[in-house]
């Protein structure tokens, strides 16, 4: 394996597999043109983040753009933006000149998704072609050359379980959608699932067994998802307890780490070999959720 360095990052190419390994934003690499002329292909490393910001305008006042600059991600997927594009400042429409895509809810100040991407996707699709879900701004899909990226905000079943049926129907539609896309190319699904899958995924499982987000029906759907050839990206790298992504706003709850793991990166098992790392960022404040960062390797 030969290596080069530049722009603070390592670049490599392998003369046996004939791949030139770059970050998507690296437009010029010493010797790149020669290598391409010799038949090398380009493979990208990427850093992607998902975050339920609980209001994009709100989190923007709490250091969102500083976090964005520090992380320098290739793609950021946001849930619960609670705004339409025309309500956002220019700094939130195209931060750092990223391509931006929005799928807001019809209801003002509710739900909604955004994706920022350094690289322009091949195609953008908002929704599942199911009006009952699409009007709430719950699914946004970008197609890239080597995978589909699905940003999703799963419904909350609510305290009285009034929306459990709606949520389970959404979950079934999502699994069908993933299976259809997977026939074409690999998928990366991220977002707020509003489900803690296992007892390890929340602080007090016994006290919450009848609460929304940890209901048997919700957890059974997660079992179904992961038995259908998909994998929980975070748990590929971290099997420890007390790894949470959501905490109540109540005083000292987050400081005492009384939380739930509701936010995920999921991919098909055949694509899992591309995952280099998946990690939470609980130190990042601004929302009741924290970001979850995935790194892809060539």
Task: Draw up the topology in text.
Elements: E1 2-6, E2 9-14, E3 19-22, H1 32-37, E4 41-44, E5 46-52, H2 56-60, H3 64-71, E6 75-79, H4 90-93, E7 99-103, E8 113-117, E9 123-126, H5 131-134, E10 139-143, E11 148-153, H6 164-182, E12 187-192, H7 216-226, E13 230-232, H8 233-237, E14 246-247, E15 259-260, E16 263-268, E17 275-280, E18 292-296
Parallel strand pairs: 3-4, 5-6, 11-12
Antiparallel strand pairs: 1-2, 2-3, 5-18, 6-8, 7-8, 9-10, 10-11, 12-16, 13-16, 14-15, 17-18
Helix pairs in contact: 6-7
Instruction: List the strand order in the largest sheet.
Output: 7-8-6-5-18-17
CATH class of the largest domain: Alpha Beta
- The helix tally amounts to 8
The strand count comes to 18
Q: Which spans have pLDDT < 50 for at least 5 consecutive residues?
A: 1-28
Largest beta-sheet characterization: 6 strands, mixed
- What is the distance, rounded to the nearest whole angstrom, between the alpha carbons of the first and last residues? 14 Å
Outline type: globular
Output the helix-strand order: EEEHEEHHEHEEEHEEHEHEHEEEEE
Structural class of the helix and strand makeup?
A: alpha+beta
Output the CATH homologous superfamily of the largest domain. Endonuclease/exonuclease/phosphatase
Describe the structure.
This protein has 298 residues and is of the alpha+beta class. The chain folds into 2 domains: 2-42, no CATH class; 47-296, Endonuclease/exonuclease/phosphatase (Deoxyribonuclease I, Chain A, 4-Layer Sandwich), CATH 3.60.10.10. 21% of the residues lie in helices and 29% in strands. The chain has helices at 32-37, 56-60, 64-71, 90-93, 131-134, 164-182, 216-226, 233-237; strands spanning 2-6, 9-14, 19-22, 41-44, 46-52, 75-79, 99-103, 113-117, 123-126, 139-143, 148-153, 187-192, 230-232, 246-247, 259-260, 263-268, 275-280, 292-296. The chain has a 6-stranded mixed beta sheet. It has a 6-stranded mixed beta sheet with strand order 9-10-11-12-16-13. α6 (164-182) packs parallel to α7. The radius of gyration is 19 Å and the shape is globular. The two termini are 14 Å apart.
